[in-house]
Amino acid sequence: MRVKNSVVVITGAASGIGRATALHLARKKACLVLASRRGDALESLVAECTALGARAIAVPTDVTDAGAVQALAGRAVEHFGRLDVWVNNAAVSYFSPFLKVPLEDFRRVMDVNVMGYVHGARAALERMEQQGSGMIINVASIVGEVPQPYTTAYSMSKAAIRALGVSLCSELRLDKRNKKIHVCTVLPATIDTPFFDHAANYTGRRAVAMPPVYSPDRVARTICALLEKPRREVVVGRIGRSMVRQHRLMPGRIETMMAVQVENTHLSKKEATADSSGNLYAPSPDPGNATVTGGWGGKRRTAQRSLAGAALVGVGGAALSPQVRSTLSELWCRARS
Questions:
Q1: Gyration radius of the chain over CA positions
Q2: Domain ranges of the chain
Q3: Which residues of 124-158 are buried (b: 16+ CB within 10 A; e: fewer)?
């Protein structure tokens, strides 16, 4: 599929990966239908995309509302005449011990991250089957392969998204009329976005981006490449790819390493925070959060984190000597400072 003039719907477009993807596709002159709960952030993004020479419209949408998602797909076809690509990207999360998170917050994460993707896939497939072609790209996470503590619902939801992709691919293969419809799943590692400040939190500790941290542009480039060459599943981030491979070989060791890393590097030991439901039920009112990045990157810190992560994953973490583990922990602490 040619990216130029392709009609692409992106949910969760207001910030982070969604915003980066919109800007990346705008440079390639795609036709963009941008969805999020944040109308003001979408309008500013439309202006940016238009300045890059793309055609774009904003459609404020809550993906938990099946009717609103159907209307979103309808707007794409009404405005641009067809629907080529649907990027399911809108997602929320919390950080909390399992027994402390309010059940309504748990359900909300599952509703947005799973049913939101289901609503998107149904709306897109209905139009794509009529056209005889199209592509659904589901943004999941490596925690769908290697779940982590304190984000139980998020980890569950991303595993469900991987299953959704496999199931839809299998079903589409059974009907030759749908051979030009593709379903792709993207599994990013930790990405430098405002996501961590948006999340609900009941740990008492500020959530920070867990090293190594990759640029949202890397995910955007991956999504753009899928338009031209579809792949069933792709992991973004070298350390993420290594973790996925290692997990399939020695799951217990990698899961232990993930748990320790989350405890030591994903929740700040210096910054406290009050309990909050974050953006689960309403988007952030701060226009400063409608950005691509979240301030977690930086070439020096990324390089240090990548070195430490590569060493840990390369040997499975538990095989390191105490001296080496101490050195790597110190390197992580410097990278976070």
A1: 20
A2: 7-297
A3: bbebbeeeeebbbbbbbbbbbbbbbbbbbbbbbbb
Catalogue the active-site residues: 154
Per the CB < 8 A criterion, the answer to whether 254 and 316 are in contact is yes
The angle, 0 to 180 degrees and rounded to 10, between the axes of the packed helices 152-173 and 103-110 is 30
Q: Give me the sign of the Cα torsion angle 155, 157, 160, 162.
A: negative
pLDDT digits (tens, 9 = 90+) for 85-144: 999 999 999 999 999 999 999 999 999 999 999 999 999 999 999 999 999 999 999 999
Which tens digits make up the pLDDT trace of 163-174?
A: 999 999 999 999
- Pair of tokens at residue 47: 């202006």
Q: Which residue has the tokens 């405002």?
A: 194
CATH of domain 7-297: 3.40.50.720
Contacts of 126 (CB under 8 A, 6+ apart): 73
User: Measuring CA to CA, which residue among 189, 140, 146 is closest to residue 306?
Assistant: 189
Cβ neighbors of 185 (< 8 A, separation 6 or more) are 137, 138, 140, 161, 162, 165, 232, 233, 234
Using CA atoms, how far apart are residues 96 and 116, in angstroms rounded to an integer?
A: 22
Residue 42 Cα to chain centre, angstroms: 18
Average pLDDT taken over every residue of the chain: 90
